[in-house]
Structure formats: structure tokens, C-alpha cells
Amino acid sequence: MKSLKIMILVLLIQTKIFSQQSPKREMRAAWISTVENIDWPSKPGLSDKEMKNEMIAILDNLRSYNMNTVIFQIRPTADAFYKSTKEPASHWLTGMQGVAPGFDPLQMMIDEAGKRGMNVHVWLNPYRVQKDTVRDVLSKNHLYFKRPDLFLTYGKTRYFNPGLKETRDFVASVVGEIVRKYDIQAVHMDDYFYPYKIAGQEFPDDKAFAKEPRQFKDKDDWRRDNVDLIIKQIRDTIIANKPEVEFGISPFGVWRNIAKDSQGSNTVAGATNYDDLYANILKWQKENWIDYVTPQLYWHIGFDRANFEVLAKWWAEHKYGANVYIGHGDYKISTSAKEPEWRSPDQIVKQIEMIRKMPQIDGSMHFTASTFLKKGDTLRNPLIEKEYKYIALTPEANRITRLKPEPPTNAVIAKKGDKAVLTWKAALNDKKYVIYKFPKRRITDFSNPENIYYVTTALKLEVPNADLENYVYALTALSQTQTESSPIEFSIK
């Protein structure tokens, strides 16, 4: 009996170690920024072919890192990287706002990412309209020229007025159209709610406060309520259209400093979500208004003002049922970085290792996709050697009613020369397919990510013909909610 207990304990320890090193489910996402052409397209005015080739290059590269999700910025400044009936095509596409390319960027992203087994989260900025008012970029059919009373300017940037009901209604209608028209995994917003403060300059919302104060006497509380209202309305809009679509927020990494609030983190950040951006993230988590939260922890482990480790633990302890993914600042990696901690990819590897030891954390999101292209093997090799060695499926959201897929049918293998083609047919609620490959022609463990060969939305896959002598293939389906079906084995035709 004693020896049996020891054996069970050893197995449990091995399972725990294995799950930390190579979990079968883990968010591995990269942001694809379109504002200022940070990631895609590389500059405005490229040909359709050039833009498409760049998108494919980004996706192929992310696939080589075993990433499973892209966060695609489709509305950076009240404009569109998709077919919108409400806002003009972005000037960061063709060079002129309102002039669309000859293809739908979001639909292409969904199609091409899906082939590579990746989900798409659409990233919208709720309030920002014009990044620099010095540049005359707004098209003449922009809402700004029809309803200038809905907008205000702070610094050089133009915004929707967050204090107006019309703003909330319009932004919610934009979200509703996207959710209805596109097969997306999630709607995503980052830290740009009320803008970061400009020293000596007050945000010009006095008239809105006087017009719609509701029950508030304190303007800061009123501003927070404005953001609460738009988050709740967007959540309701998503549920009314497609309740299986997730809603995620990627806030600035510090909710509040402990000096201001005993519930806050042990940090001394110069800005915080609650006090400066008027975003009460914890309330949204507690109220079930969001499905996941991705704090942007773009600081290194041990940083004195905002320590990555301290903040990762704080967010893990304050999840309130939402999935928690950590935002990593990969863009900081540089041999000439001022902080020595960022002079190699080791910092990112250590961060991933650290959060995997925190069971409340469900994975990572990386800023930004172009970093993975620029760094190449310098970043890829250390990640693929260990942390991202195997493919991982994305986590199921805790707050979404899960859709159970039926197993695919007619899974067969047909030999064609030196290739073999795996084909299958879709069943109810199938969105993606997980192809497993087991050595020694013996199906063993579906929980081991080492056995995952590929994930795709396609209904066929080519494999080397020679593999059929040594391996056996099996197949499962994933639903929109990332729920996995029971498996079926491929038969040789």
C-alpha cells in the first residue's frame, strides 16, 4: 500500500511538472496592430497582393511559434479594417480614409488564421477617432461631419465623448454589426478608455457632465460610470447577437497602487486604470461583464516600480471567474535596451515559466506580431525548444455556455504518391479540427500535447505517406467555445 501511494505521488508530481512545461490548453496570442501601420500593412497604399502577402507572412511566422490566437486591430480610430456600413475604411490601408482595398482584411484574416489553427479576436478602440488632428485624414462621410457634437479634442487627438449616451449606442451598434457578420472568437479592447492624462490639461467633458450627470456629484465617479455603461452595453450586444462570442479587456497592468487602495497592488505606477483611465476592471470581472482579462505587464521581473512577478500574482488572485491571460512586452527585447533584463529573450521565457506555476493564469498574449518577425530565430528558438515546443489548444472561457461539437465523420486516409491525404466531414457545431498523431501505431493519450499534429478549419490535410507505417492518426472537433469532441480514428482507404 505504501509503495502504491508513493507511485501515485510520483505520477501526480510528474503530471504537474508536465502540465507546467507543456499544457494542452494555453492561450498563446499575438497582437496585430494596424494603428500607425505598426504590424500590418507595413505602410499605406500597398497593392492588394502586397497586403495579402504580408498578412500570410505574419500568420505563417506566428504558426512557426505554435501560437494559437491573433488579436487583430480592426477599428483603431473609428475606422474599419473590415466591411462596415457605419464607418469608413481606414487610411492606414490605402492611404485615404474611405477608400477600401479590393478584399476584406478581416475576412481574409479569419480564413487564413483558421487554416493554420488560430482563432481571431477582433480588437476595437471605443473612443479614439483621430490620432493627430493636425493631419486631415477624416473622409467626408465620417460621422464626425454629421454629428460634430458627439466629439471632443484632447491634446492632438479627437475622441467620441464618453459622457454621451449617443456615443455608447453608436459604439455598441458597431460591435453588433461585426459580431453578426463575422465568425470571430472574441471582441477585444485594450487600455484606451479615457485617454492617458496630459499634464496641466483637463479632459474637456464639462458640458457632458452638466448635461447628463445622472446621480453623480464627483466627476471621476461619473467618468468611471460612463465606461461601466459602455462595457455593459457591449456585453449585452454580444450576447444578443452571438452569446458564444467572448468579450475580453487588456487593461494597463496596474488597477490601483496600494497607497491609494488597500486592495491595490504593491506598486508605485505613475498611472492606473481606476484613477487615470477611469476603467474599473475589477468591477467588470465581478459583474460577469467580461470573459477574460489580459493585464499589460510590460515590465521585467524585479522592476522596482511595477514588478512583473508581483503583478502577475495580484491579477491571478483577482480573477473573479474570468480567464486571466498575461500581456508580455516582447517589443522591449533589444541588445541595446537600457534595462539589461530586456537584452535577450530570456526575460520572456522566464515570465512564461513563472506564470505557468500560477494555476489561476490561463496563458499569454504577446505585443506585438512584428516583434516575432523581426527577432526570428533569436526569439523562436528559445520558445520552441521548451515553452512552446508543442501545439496548445486555447482555453475554454469560464463564462460562455459551451457548445458541444459532434465528432467529425468519414475520417479516411488516401495514399497519393509520396503523400497521404487525410479527409473528413464536418458534424454539428464543428468549427476547427485537431489532428492527433500517435507513434507505434497505438492510440495512447489525448491529453498529451506532444500527440497533437495540427489544428485547422480545413477538411483535409496532407501528411507524408511514409508516416503511415509508424504512426496512427486520430481526429477531434472543436466548437466555437473551444470545447473538444470525442475522437475518431482515421481508416486507410
Automatic annotation (TrEMBL):
Entry-linked Pfam families: GHL10
Keyword presence, Signal: yes
Keywords: Hydrolase, Signal
Molecular-function GO terms, alphabetical: hydrolase activity
Keyword Membrane: no
Residue ranges of domain Glycosyl hydrolase-like in the record: 26-342
Entries under InterPro entries matching the protein: Divisome_Glycosyl_Hydrolase (IPR052177), GH (IPR017853), GHL10 (IPR003790)
Domain of life: Bacteria
Name of the featured protein: Glycoside hydrolase family 10 protein
Species assigned in the record: Flavobacterium ginsengisoli
